[in-house]
Specification:
Layout (H helix, E strand, L loop, with lengths): L1 H22 L1 E10 L11 E8 L2 E8 L6 E8 L4 E9 L2 E4 L3 E2 L7 E5 L2 E2 L5 E10 L8 E12 L4 E3 L13 E4 L5 E7 L5 E5 L2 E5 L1 E2 L2 E12 L4 E7 L4 E8 L5 E3 L4 E8 L2 E11 L4 E7 L12 H13 L5 H31 L5 H19 L5
Parallel strand pairs: 1-8, 9-12, 10-20
Antiparallel strand pairs: 1-4, 2-3, 2-5, 5-6, 5-7, 10-11, 11-18, 12-17, 13-16, 14-18, 15-16, 19-24, 20-23, 21-24, 22-23
Helix pairs in contact: 3-4
């Protein structure tokens, strides 16, 4: 009887251990879907599942696809902080799906891909916001941030074509910067799309899916003396332009823009100028006067920059509570987009498209921002 009891105890322990081990793995299922109406079959599409532990990549698994795009991955690691990121290569372009936390991996997911086009007529700017921060007159530099809402109005992803001999791709989505602009830093880009600095601006290389996408970035512009003319050209038709000037000692002349009073952000008053429905190629010129004089010390904090950018995007909303809710929701979305950006960066480095030093610098910057978000340091 004693041996029988011991045997039953061992059997129970083994079953308990097996159950615990089974509970530590997750099954993820779903389908890759071409959302272009009447789109091409998925033949040749390749799915990889990037697995993150917190902010660090843990492993990458190739995932077989059925002819109809269905897939199932078993034995995935589970636990707090585990996130799965599906990445699909289709027709030579990379499409990054939504991150899936291990705790939410039960329902089947859908990973969208699209046929592609090089017709730039599908692109427009839903909004172009430019914010001039309070001037630090001790440095002779203007700190500027921009938030662009790039909209693909079609049903295909816009994708630049490879250049001859592996050179710069053609049909680039390009944006100019003011003369002398320096220190270009991105806080938000399009997942799976590379941002490459080019002559007097930057270009987007990769597939831009249908819908609206936000580009949030900052830079500095040097000035000498008391005035400066800032010029920007809108490369695409633009629904709304919004300019915020955060230094009350500056006078602003901007032909074609209408003064819309002022708004208060974080206790500081910003002059507001706006315009609507501008055609592609419109050149905006802001002449700033009053840059000389005493010092106005300023420490540029990217968390502050992001908050101001969101306010710029949401100006005109009737309720302040609406902004607070949107900012909180975007704080969560930013963490997911940073994971997507890290995955895309790793893929480009693995493909030999990035210099090791550039790769390490970009990755460190992304991880630093991700740590800030994870620690709750931003709204």
């Amino acid at each position: 009887m004693r041996l029988l009891g011991l045997g039953l105890g061992l059997l129970l322990a083994v079953l308990t251990l097996a159950t615990a081990q089974a509970a530590e793995t997750v099954t993820l299922s779903g389908r890759v879907v071409n959302r272009t109406p009447g789109g091409s079959p998925l033949e040749g599409a390749q799915l990889r599942l990037r697995i993150f532990q917190g902010e660090e990549p843990r492993e990458t698994r190739p995932v077989p696809l059925a002819p109809d795009g269905r897939f199932q991955v078993t034995g995935l690691p589970a636990g707090e902080g585990i996130v799965y990121l599906p990445v699909v290569e289709f027709q030579g372009a990379v499409f990054v799906g939504e991150p899936v936390p291990a705790s939410a991996a039960g329902p089947a997911i859908e990973v969208p891909v699209y046929d592609q086009t090089t017709d730039q007529s599908v692109l427009r700017l839903g909004r172009a916001s430019l914010v001039i921060l309070p001037v630090d007159r001790s440095t002779g530099l203007l700190n500027i941030l921009e938030l662009l809402v790039l909209v693909n109005t079609g049903d295909r992803a816009y994708a630049s074509r490879p250049g001859a001999g592996g050179g710069m791709p053609r049909e680039l989505v390009r944006f100019g910067l003011p003369p002398g602009a320096d220190g270009l830093t991105f806080q938000e880009t399009i997942p799976g799309v590379e941002v490459r600095q080019v002559d007097r601006g930057f270009a987007l290389i990769g597939a831009i899916p249908p819908g609206a996408h936000e580009l949030f970035f900052s830079y500095t512009v040097p000035y000498v003396g008391d005035s400066l003319a800032l010029s920007r050209t809108l490369p695409y038709p633009t629904d709304d332009v919004l300019i915020l000037v955060g230094d009350d000692r500056l006078q602003v002349a901007a032909p074609g823009l209408v003064a819309r009073g002022s708004t208060t952000i974080a206790g500081r008053t910003y002059q507001v100028l706006a315009a609507e429905r501008l055609p592609a190629g419109t050149r905006l010129t802001l002449t700033l006067t009053g840059l000389g004089g005493g010092l106005t010390p300023l420490v540029v904090d990217h968390g502050l920059l992001r908050g101001i950018g969101l306010v710029a995007l949401l100006l005109g909303a009737a309720l302040a509570v609406g902004y607070a809710l949107r900012a909180r929701a975007r704080g969560l979305g930013q963490r997911e987009q940073l994971l997507q950006a890290v995955a895309a960066l790793d893929d480009r480095f693995a493909a030999g498209a990035l210099d090791p030093a550039d790769y390490r610098a970009q990755r460190s910057a992304l991880l630093a921002r991700l740590r800030t978000l994870t620690a709750g340091g931003e709204p």
